[in-house]
Amino acid sequence: MTTWGGGLMAACLLVTTIGGGAASAMAGAEPVPDGVHAFTAKITFGDVRSCTGALVDARWVVTAKSCFVDGATAPADGPPARPTTALVGRTNLAGTAGHRLAVTSIVPHPDRNVLLAELSAPVGDITPALWTGTAPGSGETLRVTGYGRTSTEWVPDRLHTGTFTVGSVGPTTVTVTGATTAATICKGDAGGPAFRETTGGAELVAINNTSWQKGCLGETETRDGATQTRLDDLGAWFHQVVGTQPYALAHAVAGEFTRDGREDLVAVEPSTGKLWLYPGTAVDRQWGDRVQLGQGIDWNGYRDLVVGQFEGDTFDDLLAVETATNTLWMFPGTAQGNGFGSRVQAGSGWQDLNDLVVGRFNRDAYDDVAAIHAQSGQLLLYPGTAAGGLVFGEHVILGNSGWTLKRELTAGRFNRGDTYDDLVAVDKSSGDIQMYPGTAAGGSTWGQILTIAVGGRGLTSVAAGRFNPDGYDDLLAVEGDQVWLYPGTTAGGALAARVQPLGRVPHLQPHGLQEAVTGKFNQDDHADLIGLEKGTGRLWLYPGTAFGLFDRRVPIGNGWNGYRDLVAGRFDRDAHDDLLAIELSSGTLWLYPGNGQGGWGARKQVGANWLGLERLTGGRFDRDEYDDVVAVEKSTGRLRLYPGTAAGNGWGPSTIVSQGGWNDLGALSRGQIDRNTHDDLLAVEKATGKLWLYPGTTAGGPFGARVELAPGNWAGRNELVALRADADGHDDVLVADVGTGRALLHLGLPSGGVAADAVEFGPLG
Question: Residue 161 to residues 1, 29, 94, 692: CA-CA distances in angstroms?
Fold first, then answer.
């Protein structure tokens, strides 16, 4: 195993650092069988060094801080200074098991040689090591794993392990010696885990810090032993770092689901379609660890989630409209508070009813449902009844007109002077949050409309609830990925200045992509990604960086589920990348001119009757200076070229560049994969799952003979994008995996082609 860190083993004894140089594993250690100690991670920091770490949470690895030193620069909170990956669960490095993940951010400990690295996707199929709070004892035996040098190999291709005996126990470190004379920690083992083996799992005690490296290949040191950095007393720091706040939510609602008397948050994760419960706590602005509810259901298929008590019991129930059928369903709460009972139909024909809201609006003791009628603009009330359950009274008008100018309706008691439910809505024009105070008369009689918060144009998923311990109703709203809390006040009426919940927001990378395109949309030197989020119609900009990662995503559009075949390119002859898309309802091809700031000018029609074409791809295929579009003609399977023109407001006459067979292929993408300057096409063959390269030619027009680009089964990838995700000058390929919602980045190779092993990006769960 490797040495890492640096410093003194004992007084006046210089210790070789473990972290530098090439990848190095434990001398005299045993090779680990496949799948054993799978929580061990191999960390690669640029082309500078390799270390070892341990998975301690689905999204976090612990390792040595010294592994991330860049020259004389110590690591700091934020993205690592060089592109960094973590390989988790691959005992045999020559195999394909486990996950290759990017490190998106790092949090070094202020005083110890310890660092937590955030991963680009969660690892859900490997049990993390347990972060124990029990200190190591002198004479105790610990097992150590590492990918570092051995006594016979410079760069082993398999994880190794050995047992070590604890010597002295200091305030921050412990000394260890090999339980056998041959066991030694070597270069490449820096940050590797030292753990107890218990019936409950591996209890992580410490990580490798420094070593004399006796017995390591290439070393002549005769002194024995190593030091390890204690972790057992860093539990509070660990939990503070990995604790997340609710983020990236849709359809957020509040209710008391866990039976503990505190208001909880329930919301959909759009990228996965999962429904999550965030349990309320006694701490202001803090929720407990989230729990999945409604398993086996794709909650992206529902809209307008609301909470109330409809069954005559004291348990909060969930109502939602099924988008495909416009059926209103109730998911009844249970006494156990750990989920819902079987859904029960509560209504039908809700296609014209939007922005559902629950409250006691007519002054009786039953929860009512109100909704905006899209055709009339009225706010309709469906009153709860004494019968309870799914029996609503005949609807009445709660608001006469103009309600289609409002959105994100929710109800609570905000004005402190009464016990009546008030109605809150976001005004579409101003973006302000407005309150309609309830009155003693109930029904359609409201008090004077008040503005209780301003600047809410970007807000979605507004929910009312008691999210802090003061007893006042608050508002929660999502803006982009960020959740904001607008606290209620003693005076009532206007809300206090908004604040973020406690906990960190994970650094989300691309995931849940229904469609994706790449281009330079924000005027820097890095390729950006625009992704259409599966099932939601939301369009996101993922700004590129120099490190094969993306900055925090930015919402740039809604309602894009009415379009398909997004294409990027410079079509209108200015210096900004534009977006093309086919409108499903009309077959119109629209151009959205880029403005260089991640947004668009007024759209322009650049084509009609394009519904017979699919898998549109932009590029310079005919070798002139204008961006073209190729598309598959569905009726014939032929590939057509629509050449760009100097005018930039349409296309020249289309030509056939390939006679047939393109219906047998899935996603298409443009790229310069074979290391020349000609735009190529990439495509996945549906039947075989093979990835093919159709090379561009000097003459332009027809492509050269296809070649298989990378081994493996690429089936199930619903989107394919070639982009330069890092600074190496090679085109990489990003694909969207339908089953998991993850995006997989296959890095380009200097010799041409792409790596078969992919870096995984994914949602939280």
Answer: 8, 5, 18, 41
Contact indicator for 279, 262 with CB cutoff of 8 Å? yes
The secondary element (H helix, E strand) that includes residue 239 is helix 235-242
Only one residue has tokens 């023109």, namely 645
Q: How far apart are the C-alpha atoms of 96 and 219, rounded to whole Å? A: 32
The confidence band for 389, taking pLDDT boundaries of 50, 70 and 90, is low
pLDDT, tens digit (0-9, with 9 covering 90-100), for 260-319:
989 999 999 998 899 999 999 999 999 998 999 999 999 999 999 999 998 878 899 999
DSSP string, 81-148: SS-EEEEES-SBTTS--SEEEEEEEEEE-SSSS-EEEEESS---SSPPPEE--SPP-TT-EEEEEE-S
| Tokens, residue 371 | 């909704």
DSSP state of 497: P
Long-range contacts of 397-406 (CB under 8 A, 24+ apart): 397/444, 398/361, 398/370, 398/443, 398/444, 399/444, 399/446, 400/444, 401/376, 401/377, 402/377, 403/372, 403/373, 403/377, 403/378, 403/379, 404/372, 404/374, 404/377, 405/377, 405/429, 406/355, 406/372, 406/434
Q: From its phi and psi, is residue 657 left (phi > 0), alpha (psi between -120 and 50) or beta? A: alpha
The rounded distance, in Å, linking the Cα atoms of 675 and 105 is: 32
Model confidence at 416, pLDDT cuts 50, 70, 90, reads confident
Report pTM: 0.89
Contact 105, 507 (CB under 8 A): yes
User: Do residues 184 and 173 lie in contact, with contact meaning Cβ atoms separated by under 8 Å?
Assistant: no
The pLDDT tens digits of the residues spanning 646-701 come to 988 889 999 999 988 999 999 899 998 887 888 999 999 999 999 999 998 888 87
Calpha distance 679→641 (Å, rounded): 13
DSSP state of 597: S
Segments of 480-599 assigned E as strands: 482-486, 513-519, 528-533, 539-542, 554-557, 563-569, 578-583, 589-592
Spatial contact of 580 and 571, defined as CB atoms under 8 Å apart: yes
pLDDT at residue 180 above 90? no
Tokens, residue 665? 């292929």
| DSSP class of 236 | H
For residue 278, give the amino acid letter. Answer: Y
> In angstroms, how far is CA 501 from the centroid of its own chain?
18
User: From CA 622, how far away is CA 641, in angstroms rounded?
Assistant: 9
Distance CA 581, CA 556 (A): 15
Distance of CA 231 to CAs 1, 438, 454, 472, 727, Å?
19, 55, 46, 40, 36
Amino acid at position 142, single letter: L
